[in-house]
Amino acid sequence: MEKLVIEGGRELHGQVRISGAKNAALPLITATLLAKGVHVLRNVPDLRDTRTILRLLESLGVTWERQGHTLRIDATDLNCSEASYELVKTMRASVLVLGPLLARLGRARVSLPGGCAIGARPINFHILGFEQLGVTCRLEHGYVDAEIDGRLQGNTVYFDIPSVTGTENLLMAATLAQGTTLIKNAAREPEIGNLVDMLIGMGAEIEGRGTDLLTIHGVEELQAADTAVIPDRIETGTYLIAVAAAGGEATMTHCNPGHLPALLEKLRAVGLEVSGQDDEITIRALRQRPLKGVDIKTMPYPGYPTDLQAQFMALMTLSNQTAVVNETIFENRFMHVAELKRMGADIRIDGHTAVVAGLGRGGLTGAPVMATDLRASSSLVIAGLAASGRTEISRIYHLERGYENLVSKLSGLGARVWKTQE
Ligand code: EPU
């Protein structure tokens, strides 16, 4: 197994070209199941998770080829409706095949994902939503067996909590339903807007893009898509926080400043200079200027994203004040705390709240730490970049799920970072 070694304490300067968004690419890839023909998806990041979803599509009879960041996917010969435990257990987003399979084949058998490192993460909202569209769902032997006789039937679906993949799954299914579907309290993340644009390009009739009420008028058939994945806002945010923590000045290119409203305000509140225009964001972090302690509370978009909570907490360990981090989306998303403490951080957890007593810049010291999930791992990278001495992060396959070319992008900023065998 590989580990990541970081010699910390160096400022970061330069540019990072932001990749396509993992969490947009995954639903876009599964949406290709909705129509025959060759779909073209551009700006698709080459990540462990995108490779996993393509393996899953292959197992369903789909063929694909990749040229750089462009994927050509042909779902004409879709002939299987089962997503096995082997694939789903390695990536929960595999449940995103449920909606398209039901819409196209009228049946789907998908393994229940089970819990993961950040919480229980049930899929009950997805299932309730499909039942509203007339699907019969049975949970047997660890699988959801879903079936409908004839076409899906448009109906109103209400989410108790705005679920991102739940909204995506229902949205995809409803495009081919008979009649109109309303998704109320829909999630509003930019990745959903990306999916709506792709589906409209395929011939779907959808109103309410970017709002919590999506109206989908079902159509009989969709055509193959030609669309681009939006920039990864979480990758963008991770590099911005890395520069904030290590000090320096850098520009993120090919990103969308409009997709990070909460983070950019929080970074300014910390006392950093941040400016975003067109498709770039520049951050300037003077090491001699102390970082202020700033509280965050994770919320559905456009609130502060849970996927940037761990990274911001790492930054707050370096402030000169106390900061309160409140995680409201997932019940177990503080796995990074114990690892940050090994690097000297002073953090106390009380339920969904973590109180971070900042140590000031230079407060962290490098240590061997363990990655537990994707975003927790990136917070350890940030801590390692800011810490004095050497940090070794094991289990870096988590990072490879969601950060394209992490080592070369960080090296491009002047970081001393490399991979080596454990
Ligand atoms: N929830 C339920 N029942 C459901 C669905 C969700 O109780 O049927 C709960 C969840 O347990 C959670 C909340 O609702 O407490 C919101 O979860 P959501 O469904 O929105 O999360 P998700 O769709 O499973 C996506 C991202 C996550 C990101 C969350 C929140 C993808 C592939 N994954 O997950 O990304 O944290 O939305 O923004 O889009 C990551 O990239 O590291 C990652 C975990």
Write up this protein.
The chain is 31% helix and 26% strand. The chain has 422 residues and is α/β, with parallel strands linked by helices. Strand 4 and strand 5 form a beta hairpin. It folds into two domains: 2-19 and 231-421, Alpha-beta prism (UDP-n-acetylglucosamine1-carboxyvinyl-transferase, Chain); 22-228, UDP-n-acetylglucosamine1-carboxyvinyl-transferase, Chain. The N and C termini lie close together (6 Å). It has a four-stranded mixed beta sheet, covered by helices on one side. A four-stranded mixed beta sheet has the order 2-15-17-16. The site of uridine-diphosphate-2(N-acetylglucosaminyl) butyric acid has 23 residues, from helix 1, helix 5, helix 6 and helix 12.
What are the SSEs and their pairings?
Blueprint: E1 2-7, E2 12-17, H1 22-31, E3 38-42, H2 48-59, E4 63-67, E5 70-74, E6 82-83, H3 85-88, H4 98-105, E7 107-111, H5 124-132, E8 136-140, E9 143-147, E10 156-158, H6 164-175, E11 180-184, H7 190-201, E12 205-207, E13 213-217, E14 226-228, H8 233-246, E15 248-253, H9 261-270, E16 273-277, E17 280-285, E18 296-297, H10 309-316, E19 322-326, H11 335-342, E20 346-350, E21 353-357, E22 368-370, H12 374-386, E23 390-394, H13 397-400, H14 406-412, E24 416-421
Parallel strand pairs: 2-15, 3-14, 6-7, 10-11, 18-19, 22-23
Antiparallel strand pairs: 1-23, 1-24, 3-5, 4-5, 7-9, 8-9, 11-13, 12-13, 15-17, 16-17, 19-21, 20-21
The site of uridine-diphosphate-2(N-acetylglucosaminyl) butyric acid (EPU) has 23 residues, from helix 1, helix 5, helix 6 and helix 12.
